[in-house]
Amino acid sequence: MIYSKPKFKEKYSNFINGKFVPPIGGEYFENTSPIDNSLIAKYPRSQKEDVELALDAANAAKEAWGNTSATERSTLLYKVADIIEEHLEEFALVETCDNGKPIRETLNADIPLAIDHWRYFAACIRSEEGSASELDANTLSMNIKEPLGVIAQIIPWNFPLLMLSWKLPPALVTGNCVILKPAEQTPSSATLLMEKIADVFPPGVVNIIHGFGPEAGKPLASSSRVDKVAFTGETTTGQLIMQYASKNLNPVTMELGGKSPNVFFNSVMDEDDAFLDKAIEGAVLFAFNQGEVCTCPSRLLVQEGIYDAFMERVIARTNAIIQGNPYDVNTMLGAQASNDQYEKIQAYLKIGKEEGAKVLAGGEANKLSGNLAEGFYIKPTILEGHNKMRVFQEEIFGPVVCVTKFKDEAEAIAIANDTLYGLGAGVWTRDAHQLYQIPRAIKAGRVWVNCYHAYPAHAPFGGYKKSGFGRENHVMMLNYYRQTKNMLISY
Ligand code: NAD
């Protein structure tokens, strides 16, 4: 089955104070689909004055929203989840059109997972129990949690609705008002969501501002009228955002880049069985979902005893990946999200070859035919080399896996940790000792063992080192959006 490009209006607005509001300066930017480089629609090129309007709305709404009951807020989050679910296919198509990822991913993973995050945080807030203790016979010590106030959230383009759904639910359910800026490359699903839920929250509680980072993101992150900045994106952008927020002494959470190792020990090939098949899939499939995943297993580390035999199977599996029209339900690898990404990845392929990396698969753009000829497709690529090469060290954010071999556990750990980043990692082994000790030694916020890529709402997710700090998901997230007040009550 092949879906068609969804229909869009000619232009869209920001969502401020419960209404769709055109940009004050009247400027728009053109959003195009990476599938065929066709125009999608025009979106507001917001500036500081648009951000100020949203700040007025959010600040006016925060007192009343912060005083609503947890039950009331939880009910509204469930409502949002139901609305997205009702329109799941519409959201999936819009996401595929905007981002270029295959419809099978958006239909089966991105949007269902986004829905689950709304439900998860709706449930979390209801399961909380208060606590109080007696200091002495006449004094009660009681801690209460209060919202921070107004939250600025800035998100990237790689999982547009999912990143929004990692950010909005915990902030809203804890009683904060939010101004969220989607990435300029993928503004559509956030807009569609606002169209569907325009009346769900009181005016000013949720605001969406479109535009570019330096024009709309910077005034938002720099404002003294926000109480926290939650950011997901590149490490270098995160450094800028921290500078902006520090002027107001505002707390930040940083979900940044990665260069995740995926480590395969000899024992995965002890038998030719279902586990080995799963390991091959684990080396290949999660690296080649455009490679535009912050935890993309972009460094493949294979123990020398199995290197040749394992890589033979990995290469064969890679070459069997179906790349093509993202609207086709059989497509496994779609388009890169933008021309910038497309060019950046090709530049890294050139760098890799110049550094002496050997191309084991792909290694170039994939020129598709028909209307896809204008789209941004890169063949799934495997580069063989060593961990000091730039292609092993820098985040390419494309379907490019860099493979190297290691001798023993110590070398595997050393290579895995020889990176500025510490977001995700994979470890594959049948050895009970390695199952626990290798993940323990890897400096990363998430280690998958004998699996890769699941992002359940109840598992904390975030980075070590230059991959950021703070966590997303899990009930602990609630406290990233609250402050604690202690009351000492004498009676
Ligand atoms: P990016 O940093 O270029 O942009 C992210 C957002 O920041 C966009 O909305 C952009 O408009 C905004 N922005 C850019 N410059 C800004 C500025 N000066 N001031 C304020 N806002 C600004 O990142 P990207 O290219 O959109 O996304 C890819 C990156 O995101 C990768 O590095 C990836 O690893 C990372 N990522 C991390 C996670 C995680 O959870 N750790 C998840 C997804 C993506």
UniProtKB/TrEMBL annotation:
This is Aldehyde dehydrogenase family protein. The keyword Oxidoreductase applies. GO terms for molecular function: oxidoreductase activity. Keywords: Oxidoreductase. Belongs to the aldehyde dehydrogenase family. Its EC number is 1.2.1.-. The active site is at E255. Residues 27-486 form the Aldehyde dehydrogenase domain. It comes from the Bacteria.
